[in-house]
Amino acid sequence: MALISLEDLEGLDDEQLDDxxxxxxxxxxxxxxxxxxxxxxxxxxxxxxSVPAEMTGPIQEMTRNSTxxxxxxxxxxxxxxxxxxxxxxxxxxxxGHWACVTRGEKLYEQSISMAFMKLMxxxxxxxxxxxxxxxxxxxxxxxHMLDDGTSFEKDVETAFYLPAEFQxxxxxxxxxxxxxxxxxxxxxxxxxFFGTTNEETVSRQIHLLWEILGLRDDLRxxxxxxxxxxxxxxxxxxxxxxxxxxxx
Length: 248
Known about the structure:
Layout (H helix, E strand, L loop, with lengths): L5 H5 L3 H9 L7 H16 L10 H9 L4 E3 L3 E8 L2 E9 L2 E8 L4 H16 L11 E3 L1 E6 L11 E6 L17 E5 L2 E9 L4 H15 L5 E10 L9 E8 L3
Parallel strand pairs: 1-5
Antiparallel strand pairs: 2-3, 3-9, 4-7, 4-8, 6-7, 6-10, 9-11, 10-11
Helix pairs in contact: 3-4
């Protein structure tokens, strides 16, 4: 199937895409499904990632249910502003079960893309519950730093918090690469940014937040979290960089 160009992608109205597809409860016909797959393939090709045709079903399922995303619960501790601009927020996220995939591709964005496709298949019926599980946002990626403090380790873990319905009895994946992990609460400093996420853009956000905060011993500098609130097909998606406090 031919891919649409990046110029076509930049001109694609995502709200129109939602109107055409997500508001329609009926199964998509071949043309609609093909258009949606091409949209994802075009986005992925910019990062040297291939989206196979077998992802058509999960992409359609996730798109139809895109308005039914459960927000990850948290307690807002403080909000820090300067001249009306939010610089960062301090939050506590609860303990709970996460579905996790670790990939070690050549590029950071390849790792998170490949991991997210596995998570999509898990959400869309490739699980012991045999049903669509529902989605929570944000999807997070755990980034570990090399000893130089500036470069990323190759392995990146991408994860999403299981919906409340499944927290007490988590479904298991039919893919051994998808693991269910129970995590303790974490306290983070979160700063919002927009656009694509790759090693360059994430590194820039890490540097910016350190400039705002200054040197602090209560924050980890060996590990950071990137939180994505929208799917990779959104050109200017909302993200956050999270700095992790060493204690609650």
